[in-house]
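User: Design a sequence. Structure:
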């Protein structure tokens, strides 16, 4: 019995050769197009030469590479997203555990007490800072005290105040 050797030319001894199987399918598609266009050939004469087989196998190889690249980019993006999602969940768990570990009752009380002491210290600094007088105010206060002390001394111990020449003034004259 005589039959077309096209399948054997594309696939050879390996019936699992994906490139050969796809090349054979492309070859059969071209035969179908020829039949549709009225250029059908006899099935017994359909024994494509090695160069024609290589053209179809090359086209099949390009299709497989394109499919693989598309698949890799799709899987790569999904893998990246999945990886990032898993890593994010791990980080969330670590952060929650750290917060739980640092927010015990004793820790909360201690941190609140420290904050209270710091607030009290700042309040006292501000209070006494506002109450404190400037250098000029302190000098004026010292001068006022000295004048008040001099005025409070008895008149006998105070040196005579000089008035017009030859005349001394008493403390009451001034």
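Assistant: Done.
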């Amino acid at each position: 019995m005589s039959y077309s050797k096209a399948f054997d030319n594309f696939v050879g001894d390996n019936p699992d050769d994906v490139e050969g199987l796809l090349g054979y399918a492309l070859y059969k598609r071209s035969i179908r197009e020829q039949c549709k266009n009225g250029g059908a050939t006899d099935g017994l004469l359909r024994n494509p030469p090695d160069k024609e087989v290589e053209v179809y196998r090359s086209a099949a190889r390009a299709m497989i590479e394109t499919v693989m690249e598309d698949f890799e980019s799709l899987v790569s993006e999904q893998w990246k997203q999945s990886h990032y999602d898993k890593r994010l969940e791990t980080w969330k768990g670590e952060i929650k555990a750290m917060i739980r570990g640092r927010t015990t009752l004793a820790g909360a009380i201690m941190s609140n007490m420290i904050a209270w002491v710091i607030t009290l210290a700042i309040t006292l600094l501000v209070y006494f800072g506002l109450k404190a007088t400037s250098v000029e105010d302190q000098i004026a206060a010292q001068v006022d005290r000295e004048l008040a002390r001099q005025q409070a001394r008895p008149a006998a111990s105070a040196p005579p105040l000089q008035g017009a020449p030859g005349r001394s003034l008493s403390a009451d004259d001034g």
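The mean pLDDT is 80. The chain is about 70% helix and 0% strand.
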